[in-house]
Amino acid sequence: MIHVPIDAITKPGIPIGDYAMFMMMFAIITPAIFCGSVVGHGRFNFLVMFTICWSIFVYYPLVHMVWAPHGLLARLGAVDFAGGLVVHVNAGITALILSAWVGRRKDVHSQLNNLSWVLIGTALLWIGWYGFNAGSALAVNDTAVQAMLTTTISCSSAMVTWMLLDRYHFNHVTLAGVCNGAITGLVAITPGAGYVTLGGSMIIGIVGAIVSQYFITKIKPHLPIDDIVDAFGCHGVSGIWGSIATGIFTSHQISHLLPNGLLFGGDLHLLLVQIFVTLLTIIFIGVMDIILIKLLSIVLPVSIDNEKLAAIQSK
């Protein structure tokens, strides 16, 4: 934005200052997701430096690749309405790698969460998500309304699905599970919020809850990671599913800018593109994250000693 007047108008007709602030909202929330995965047992100094470097070498290049008209993934046909790849897959993969690098806590029992704060936080996320998804239409129009409706339906469907799964597997429903379900539905619909039908958003939310809960309850316990907030389970897994599902449930009647997805008579092209760009995104994030962590770990310790962590939590 050097030498660009703050009141200059972007192509969608939005002052560049307003547009920049909107995009910075995405930029600041993304590292908050993966930092939560290692909070308490990752070194603060390392996380600060990693976040700065990650923003420069991972986040902003990925934003350009996906959302710039001439970006690498955009030229391949990538569809990401409100940040499924840019925010959630990005943060989820980074959380997984950071958690694996920091390692598991030993002989340290996780303190119980304050469920009141969990509920309040989830409610704020749900409300704020309308700003992400509907706001990504960059106008008050039918696309913004569609994004609000699909966001609501996906979130609600995922929340109910998670409750039913908890009841089936564990014979009881937990508030934490309800909140996780809501988040997975919000994440899953993000890539296609303005492009898919209402029925499609329901299926996206239901499947998002199923795959995320399966990872968190069945796969994660066997992995050498300690993702405290299930950032990969909720954001990474649901984000990957949502990105792929956009190639299935996109409707040309909803968005005339895109062809029909597989379910509405389109061929395999859009689905295969979404699978391909999702894989490329995962590879790019994974490689860059590992390089950054390796370089920073030369000069900064990554994790807190388990003995020191236990002493801190006992106070």
TrEMBL record:
Keyword set includes Transcription: no
InterPro entries referenced in this protein's UniProt entry, alphabetically: Ammonium/urea_transptr (IPR029020), Ammonium_transpt (IPR001905), Ammonium_transpt_CS (IPR018047), NH4_transpt_AmtB-like_dom (IPR024041)
Gene3D superfamilies in the record: Ammonium transporter AmtB like domains (1.10.3430.10)
Compartment annotation: Membrane
Main localisation: membrane
Annotated membrane topology: Multi-pass membrane protein
Keywords: Ammonia transport, Membrane, Transmembrane, Transmembrane helix, Transport
Superkingdom, natural source: Bacteria
Stretches that traverse the bilayer: 20-39, 46-69, 81-102, 114-132, 144-165, 172-189, 195-216, 228-250, 270-293
Domain Ammonium transporter AmtB-like residue range list: 11-307
One annotated Gene Ontology cellular component of this protein: plasma membrane
Family: Belongs to the ammonia transporter channel (TC 1.A.11.2) family.
PANTHER family, alphabetized: AMMONIUM TRANSPORTER MEP2
Protein name per Swiss-Prot or TrEMBL: Ammonium transporter
Organism: Limosilactobacillus reuteri
Lineage, broadest ranks: Bacteria, Bacillati, Bacillota, Bacilli, Lactobacillales
